[in-house]
Amino acid sequence: MQSYTIGQAARLLGVSPDTARRWADAGKVATHRDESGRRLIDGRDLAAFSIEVGQTAGGEEDASYTSARNAFPGIVTAVKLGDVAAQVEIQAGPHRLVSLLTREAVEELGLEVGMQATARVKSTSVHIDRT
Q: Which tens digit of pLDDT belongs to each residue from 57-78?
């Protein structure tokens, strides 16, 4: 499972590293240390926490996650596979994006809960890029 540094987690959550560090210090999200002493957050823990943050976000920060190319970097919070189709949810800061795509595409990208991904929006279609 992928783990994230405090800085990476902050970027995915749409907050400053100081805010992410305060949340970790307060025990809102679990951390562990790697062999070099860096604090890391397990991808599944970050995915679950990002859902909480997204549900409570509102007026805290009006950070925009849309570039000129409508890219939403975030973390995969759910993958539901059917026989042919799949549904992938990404939490990008306070934004929850859901994409319907083929099962084959999900498997080729190796998408799973807790991994970093970018949702790209064009009209009513959402395309997922593994990052």
A: 654 444 444 443 678 889 999 9
Point out which residues pair with 87 in neighbouring strands. 80, 100
Between CA 79 and CA 96 the distance in angstroms is: 13
CA gap 40, 99 in Å, rounded:
28
Distance CA 67, CA 44 (A): 27
Please state the pTM of the whole predicted model: 0.62
CA separation, residue 51 to residues 10, 25, 59, 85, 104 (Å)? 14, 19, 16, 23, 26
Give the pLDDT confidence of 4-22 residue by residue, as tens digits: 999 999 999 888 899 999 9
CA distance 52 to 23: 12
